[in-house]
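Example record

One chain of 306 residues, shown exactly as stored in the release files.
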Amino acid sequence: MSAEGAWTRWPAPAKLNLFLHVTGRRADGYHLLQSVFRLLDWGDDVYLRVRDDGCIRRIGGSVAGVAEADDLAVRAARLLQQASGCASGVDIAIDKRIPAGGGFGGGSSDAATVLVALNRLWGTGLEPSALAALGLRLGADVPVFVHGHNAWAEGIGEQLTPLALPPASYVLADPGVQVPTAALFQADDLTRDCHPATIPGYVSGTVTGNVFEPVLRRREPAVEAMFATLSRIGRPRLTGSGSGCFVEFATRQRAEDALQRLPDGVKAWIADGVQRSPLLETLEHGPRAVDGPAGSSRSAHAVRHP
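Predicted structure tokens for this chain:
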């Protein structure tokens, strides 16, 4: 019989890609990217309960259609356990708010939170750089969530330079479709030879756009329709290689006013950009002990337009 600890709750914030270019391709087939990652104050909650028997279990559902063995959060726990030689185990439950396939980084953020939180709970003592290296084995977006800062990204997305970004609020929207990332990278109409950008160029506003946007808008009527709807309140953009869309505003009040102007039934909500991940705040001040998971099969959206 395992001796189980208390449940603790840890944030797994979502992200936006404020632009995304493909500049080439490596010999191993991976595409070379440039992007800016913006962390948000909204995302999933990861619940962890340490076990003393070495068993790693997923409690409840995580992502519909994803087997436990393929769940990035479970894989992250097993990877840390193997890399550190830790004899402890863990129960994992996730309160999902970030929609799958939206380009908001849900699976990657969940995995990063598991790595960072278990490093503390198991006492494995790995440095952030070592955790980020483990995370890269799970996905190119995981390291930015491990480090917990907005960043200029290059390489396959793992070469990160911290970047200060001005305050902003965002109307986020989910068209409700998923397109496999691999299929988009193989698309004939994907631009793969963007001229390499620079941080000063981005800061000056001359570096913009997401190479996946025109591809998805041509392929997916729901994405094109969402762009048309969001254009009523500002300039819509695509995040990552998913279908998620967003419009940026300088203040929360402007974002709230814009949200109210959207038609009924649009799956849209508001999140604020942050300079520092809420995961790092929890790491500093200690996680909150809770009676148990709040419910790992809740709606993917924190707020929906009525």
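Notes: The chain has a mean pLDDT of 92.
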